[in-house]
Design goal:
201 residues, alpha+beta, seven-stranded mixed β-sheet
Length: 201
């Protein structure tokens, strides 16, 4: 069985090579027993190595010398609330992040179910109000939304998705990005203003 560190590195390379994140943005985690393996702070998903992967406990506290992502508390909160899930992926993918910057988004469902796969894999994509990256005061909001949603959109930031496996979490991230792209294309084609999004979701 592949070690969580190797799973993370393999998935990180895939995310980076396909442009789903850039620079040193994005982070991902895998739960294994009572530990959560997570990408380190300040790392690029394109170059991170297995021995650089950090470990945290269910409360988000680092338990190894490697410093975890400053957004480790988001991963811990989701996995704490959803014990049946085992992995979390957060990216700054272009189209989903663009949608997260639009005014007038419905807080309970930022994207309409334009494709059957979005409806099947994502359902609703609630909005997490804008917080500074690493601001742990958003923990309660994350926990509340995670109780009924496996994915969410951080305002002016990007998508977060959880799954039973790292691959299933990544599949959800990709579906969000694909639907966000379609959404922006159809909005531009229809000539709608962003102010109408809330009433026409």
């Amino acid at each position: 069985m592949t070690h969580p560190r190797d799973q993370i590195v393999e998935t990180a390379r895939s995310i980076y090579s396909r442009g789903l994140t850039h620079g040193s943005t994005g982070n991902l985690s895998v739960r294994s027993g009572d530990r959560i393996f997570i990408t380190p702070t300040g790392s690029s998903l394109g170059t991170v190595q297995p021995d650089e992967i950090a470990e945290i406990d269910p409360d988000g506290t680092a338990i190894t010398q490697c410093k975890p992502s400053k957004e480790a508390f988001i991963h811990a909160a989701i996995l704490r609330i959803r014990p049946e899930l085992g992995a979390v992926v957060h990216t700054h993918s272009t189209y989903a992040t663009a949608v997260s910057c639009l005014p007038g988004l419905h807080p309970d469902s930022t994207l309409p179910p334009l494709t059957v796969y979005f409806e099947m894999r994502v359902g609703s994509l609630p909005l997490v109000p804008r917080f500074r990256p690493g601001d742990t005061t958003m923990t309660a909001t994350i926990e509340k939304l995670a109780a009924t949603n496996a994915a969410m959109l951080l305002q002016n930031h990007g998508p977060v998705a959880a799954g039973t496996t790292l691959q299933s979490a990544l599949d959800t991230i990709e579906e969000i990005e694909h639907t966000a792209h379609i959404f922006l294309l159809t909005q531009a084609h229809s000539g709608r203003t962003t102010a109408t999004i809330k009433d026409n979701r």
